[in-house]
Design goal:
This protein is of the alpha/beta class. It has helices spanning 3-15, 39-52, 65-76, 110-114, 144-148, and strands at 80-83, 100-103, 118-121, 125-127, 132-134, 153-155, 162-163. The strands form two sheets. Strands 2-1-3-6 form a four-stranded parallel β-sheet, covered by helices on one side. The chain has a three-stranded mixed β-sheet with strand order 5-4-7, with helices on one face.
Length: 179
């Protein structure tokens, strides 16, 4: 018998008549049980996560969206910004703009997008738990390249689009729309 076999034999003898240890306490929250938060708490959690990722977050009412978008673009120094169909916030077209909103029809090339100062899109959903903004190519989001090429991406998120965690929205994913 070598040393290994001797040690393992002693361990087997020592635990042979012992009771099984009690199961470990699992009183923590798991991915299957997301936080139970009300709408305001969800928004606060999302803002906290986004700020943690060094995103600049502006909060306001629906009536303030156009002015907030204009302020964000102006502060960024954006002069030419890509906008997919369906994103223009109500009232943005009535504001005095020194910013050219460049449509994606016909589709802009990667070189054209690279020459822009940014892109303005909406989103499909925002996950508060992780601070994830989900784009699925739907209305107001445009083609995937719109959010990948420009250096600046301004996203408009409504309170209705904010969910707690990944299990809250798994049924709304749609096939990618490559338009």
């Amino acid at each position: 018998m070598n040393a290994r076999e001797e040690i393992l034999g002693r361990i087997r003898t020592a635990v042979a008549d012992g009771a099984a240890p009690p199961p470990a306490a699992r009183d923590y929250r798991t991915a299957e049980t997301p936080r139970d938060l009300d709408a305001d708490e969800l928004l606060e959690l999302l803002v906290d996560r986004l700020v943690d990722y060094r995103a600049l977050v502006r909060r306001g009412t629906t009536a303030m969206v156009a002015a907030s978008v204009l302020a964000a673009l102006t502060e960024r120094g954006a002069r030419r910004v890509a906008v997919p169909d369906g994103i223009l916030p109500a009232g943005l077209d009535r504001l005095e703009l020194d910013i050219e909103l460049v449509g994606d029809d016909p589709p802009l090339t990667a070189a054209q997008l690279d020459g822009l100062d940014g892109v303005l899109t909406g989103c499909a959903v925002a996950i508060a738990e992780t601070g994830t903004i989900v784009l699925d190519g739907g209305p107001g989001q445009g083609r995937r390249i719109l959010s990948l090429v420009p250096d600046y991406h301004l996203v408009v998120v409504t309170a209705a689009q904010v969910v707690a965690g990944t299990t809250s929205y798994s049924s709304i994913f749609l096939p990618w729309n490559s338009r």
